[in-house]
Design a protein that fits this description.
Distance between the termini of chain B: 25 Å
Radius of gyration of chain A: 24 Å
Number of domains of chain A: 2
Largest sheet of chain A: 6 strands, mixed
Number of helices of chain B: 11
Number of strands of chain B: 2
Number of strands of chain A: 14
Largest interface: A-B, 35 and 27 residues
Strand order of the largest sheet of chain B: 1-2
Structural class of chain A: alpha/beta
Number of domains of chain B: 1
Bound molecules: adenosine-5'-diphosphate, magnesium ion
Strand content of chain A: 25-35%
CATH superfamily of the largest domain in chain A: P-loop containing nucleotide triphosphate hydrolases
CATH topology of the largest domain in chain A: Rossmann fold
Helix content of chain B: over 70%
Radius of gyration of chain B: 19 Å
Strand content of chain B: under 5%
Helix content of chain A: 25-40%
Oligomer: heterodimer
CATH class of the largest domain in chain A: Alpha Beta
CATH architecture of the largest domain in chain A: 3-Layer(aba) Sandwich
Order of helices and strands of chain B: HHEEHHHHHHHHH
Structural class of chain B: mainly alpha
Strand order of the largest sheet of chain A: 6-7-8-3-9-10
Distance between the termini of chain A: 37 Å
Shape of chain B: globular
Chain lengths: 308, 253
Amino acid sequence: MPHIVSVDRLSKTYEGGFEALKSVSLDIEEGEILALLGPNGAGKTTMISIICGITTPSYGSVSVGGHDVVTGFRAARRLVGLVPQEVNVEPFETVFNTVSFSRGLFGLPRDPARIEAVLKELSLWDKRDSKLVELSGGMKRRVLIAKALSHEPRVLFLDEPTAGVDVELRREMWETVSRLKADGVTIILTTHYIEEAEAIADRVGVIAKGEILLVEEKSKLMKRMGQKSLRIELTAPLDAIPDSLSGYALEQDGPDALIYTYDTNAERTGITRLLGDIAAAGLHLADLQTKQSSLEEIFVSLVQESAA
Amino acid sequence: MNLYAVMAIFRFEMARFFRTVWQSIVSPVVSTSLYFVVFGTAIGSRIQEVEGTSYGAFIVPGLVMLTVLTQSVQNAAFGIYFPKFIGTIYEHLSAPISFVEIVIGFVGAAATKSLIIGLIILATSFFFVDIRIQHPLPMIAFLVLTCISFALLGFIIGIVSKSFEQLQLVPLLVITPLVFLGGSFYSISMLPPVWQTISLFNPVLYLVSGFRWSFYGLSDVPIAASLAAITLFTILCLGVIWWIFRTGYRLKT
Ligand SMILES: Nc1ncnc2c1ncn2[C@@H]1O[C@H](COP(=O)(O)OP(=O)(O)O)[C@@H](O)[C@H]1O
Ligand SMILES: [Mg+2]
């Protein structure tokens, strides 16, 4: 099956010579939620802007639904909804009209019922006759989402949708995203919040300094990069780690607990031997806990690797 | 062509006009009435008639042109500058439309607004002077063409402008002088020969002349020259706009 979005060796050098994207290739599957994770200035917005037609590429090509975004821009753009990073709205227009306008702009006939459904989905129906200038920041952002959904896109780009948004609204947005996914919409969101990628993405792409470092299924990524830690609680406090355990690089965590870090992908985790040696050292176990490292730790280690 | 998009842009721009309809209409009507009082009454008491037409009636086409030109340029310049300024232009750039839809939507709306204002001013002038319109159809055609071509010019100004000052500068420094020096309030035959020749390089002269001809059958230049001038001007503006969108100049990074 062809990919719904295909980015091929895309490069962008801005006027002034700054290279924001360096030959980026990326294939996006229909119906998935892809999180593009990267620090500020990584090139996330640049990539999305090229796909959506706001920025011109310096080299390379992009296709959406099999249509090239330059030569077949009409067919390609019809499939795409964009929620930009910057919250810019026409101040004196009403919520309903501005969303209705977007639908028309994308070549669809008026459909008040559809606009009503979108506004209700985003809890904006009560505000339909309010001028945009009267809305809070979070509501304006939801208006931008409503605008992007007004023309029933098959691919939705959300550029840092939850930056500066309160917890409740963030949760609501995640719910909206999962409902859209259930309807078959492909969603690409950029974020520098790792929890966000962790919470809703199917795949995670890590981008830094204009290059994609990897794209992988979230679960695989976490497994592949998966360092786990084992917390060993003892029945009695410990003055120092016994010499017989010095080979395990244990860390002491409070007076009566030890932390052992191991790699789930290694042939041997060393747990069995460690527990045996602990018993042999005359220590008694009170409890054991294992913890998967978060995407955050994975991310930090990746970006550090690429910088090295 | 994406007709729904054209309609969406057009409607959106017209909504802005009707939101501030009183402001949009009252100010040109008031200033035109003032021109009638000052020019028509004060000067008209000295220059009784120009080539058989009373001076008050003679200046009506020029007055309408003055307003229509300025309004077309201002409306279109502001119309496209505003979304650029507040950042909502991303939507137009990411929509499945080309420059054709954008231009028709914005320029069409700007031209329509100034046409409405032009007609209102024309109607106002009936209260002040006796007006005949000898060639109504060419009159409307000239008016519409002028609205469109100068809205195209305004569109270019709106795209090129980097600030509100620049947006106002061109209409103020270029359009208004050209209209005043383009025979709006006089026939160039009243000028010394040197100035007559210089005036022939003023494109607005051809518009005013052609427009006045459709009222009174009087013209400074042949009507064919007027038609050719406005057509040429329109093509020139379209060419510049085509180039702007081809290169993404001041629109895309
Ligand atoms: N219009 C522009 N002109 C010059 N440089 C730009 C422009 N837009 C973005 N950049 C630069 O390109 C880099 C990538 O920016 P961006 O794509 O916005 O990153 P991100 O969205 O990942 O934070 C940044 O260093 C930014 O300063
Ligand atoms: Mg960004």
